[in-house]
């Protein structure tokens, strides 16, 4: 089965994971627009989690959301450049690695999912709201979850599994 290795082997399997994140992100955003754009929020776990609809014209946590429109292209260019860097990074990783490329694929999928919105709409659609009492975490989406989980995985990799001083530490993530 050498042909299947061409489409599913390293690094393609990681690009497929990134594509799955993009597809899930876009599908859930379409669902959220249909369900919540003109309706009320839906409580999932009362007092903690709800689905709602929000448009984010800025970056993470609505950073620069009121900047006048230039941020759409600025953040789009940053996301595109970052995606190119991550794509090349994934391509160059050794095939034996698992944790790091998985993390990068999640980040890449999240970046591309939000880039899709930013280019087509000029804003990012968010719909997951976590809150407690009067405290509200910024509304987010599946792409944001991919980016956050991937970033956390990279931090874990750096702190616990990274090669140190030329000697390779025991790396269960590569098995």
TrEMBL record:
Keywords attached to this entry: Aspartyl protease, Cell membrane, Hydrolase, Membrane, Protease, Transmembrane, Transmembrane helix
EC number(s) given by UniProt: 3.4.23.36
Chief place of localization:
membrane
What molecular function terms (GO) are annotated for this protein?
A: aspartic-type endopeptidase activity
Q: Which InterPro entries match?
A: Peptidase_A8 (IPR001872)
Q: Where in the cell is it found?
A: Cell membrane
Q: Which membrane topology describes this protein?
A: Multi-pass membrane protein
Where does the chain cross the membrane?
12-32, 70-91, 103-125, 145-162
Pfam families reported in the protein's UniProt record: Peptidase_A8
| Pathway given in the UniProt record | Protein modification; lipoprotein biosynthesis (signal peptide cleavage)
Which catalytic residues are annotated?
126, 144
What this protein catalyses is: Release of signal peptides from bacterial membrane prolipoproteins. Hydrolyzes -Xaa-Yaa-Zaa-|-(S,diacylglyceryl)Cys-, in which Xaa is hydrophobic (preferably Leu), and Yaa (Ala or Ser) and Zaa (Gly or Ala) have small, neutral side chains
Q: Which residues form a coiled coil?
A: none
Enzyme superclass (EC): hydrolase
What does this gene product do?
Answer: This protein specifically catalyzes the removal of signal peptides from prolipoproteins.
The Swiss-Prot or TrEMBL record describes its family as follows: Belongs to the peptidase A8 family.
Under what name is this protein listed?
Answer: Lipoprotein signal peptidase
């Amino acid at each position: 089965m050498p042909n299947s290795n061409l489409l599913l082997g390293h690094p393609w399997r990681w690009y497929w994971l990134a594509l799955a994140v993009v597809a899930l992100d876009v599908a859930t955003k379409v669902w959220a627009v249909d369900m919540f754009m003109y309706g009320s929020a839906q409580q999932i776990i009362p007092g903690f989690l709800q689905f709602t609809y929000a448009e984010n014209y800025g970056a993470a946590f609505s950073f620069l959301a009121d900047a006048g429109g230039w941020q759409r292209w600025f953040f789009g260019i940053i996301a595109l450049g970052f995606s190119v860097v991550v794509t090349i990074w994934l391509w160059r990783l050794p095939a034996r690695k698992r944790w790091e490329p998985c993390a990068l694929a999640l980040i890449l999928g999240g970046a591309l999912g939000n880039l899709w919105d930013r280019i087509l709409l000029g804003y990012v659609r968010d719909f997951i709201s976590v809150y407690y009492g009067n405290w509200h975490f910024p509304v987010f989406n599946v792409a944001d979850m991919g980016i956050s989980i991937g970033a956390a995985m990279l931090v874990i990799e750096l702190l616990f599994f990274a090669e140190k001083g030329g000697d390779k530490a025991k790396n269960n993530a590569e098995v």
